[in-house]
Amino acid sequence: MFEMLLSPKKAERRPWELFFVGAFYASISLLLVNWMFSADPVLSKYSGILIVTFTVMFSLPFVYFTIRYEEKKITKDKTIQRLLGEHKNAIFAFLWLFVGFVVAFSFWYIVLSSASSFQAQIETFCMINRPNNFNDCVTQYGIKKSGVINANVLSETDRFRAIFSNNLSVLMFTLIFSLIFGAGAIFVLAWNASVIAAAIGIFARSNISAMPCGLFRYLIHGIPEIAAYFIVALAGGIVSTAVIRHEWGTDKFWEVLEDSLSLVLVSIVVLLGAGLIEVWITPDLVPKICPR
User: pLDDT tens across 71-87, in order?
Assistant: First the structure.
């Protein structure tokens, strides 16, 4: 039923509407998981993964049909500017969908009294942001036990290398996942939305008025980072669709492949910029705009 409510053409005319769709999908997924599995002694431990899975299930039809719609737009002899111009509305629609996920997950993280629904996300947050004090971090935010050993403190340069290397691995995984299953990369993106939401919730939980600053703190580099993932997901999905719709080696197939390779290169450049922002700009900018 939900997949019939919004078509790719309508979404590209008004991409901002996807914010409300994303917020609704994330909210209904979280509420369903808490209602269905909170009393289950086994599955309740994996609520964070189940919430993401339900969100993906709701989002898959829209993402799939959007990728098919974008594949039909491909023509010969395009510059990078024209290429991005053709696909920008789809990328904006995906970004609004992602922001809807983030806001809804953040809201529910703050409202819920237990951290159990976001256990996996909290552990991921602590591994990224406090690797030298991981066990204390997860304990502080409501997770009692963890088998992960504390890591070493990293310099800014080493942290940038680690972040960019990790993000590049996620980018390649997103590309491969979208090649194998055109819309499958939405899982990676929904997972990242839930981790960012946990980070925002951790920042804002002690003071609800701090939530806008929490959003700003993580979305300032999170938006370009996720945009890179969406661009590469679109590239892989387009190729996946082309393999199904066109014979291997036809002129149309090579046009699609050239288009997709250009999008992959753009996504790597955007990802590099997001890493630079996260390590060297965000730590200086946020305290000036959102003083504690």
Answer: 777 666 565 567 667 78
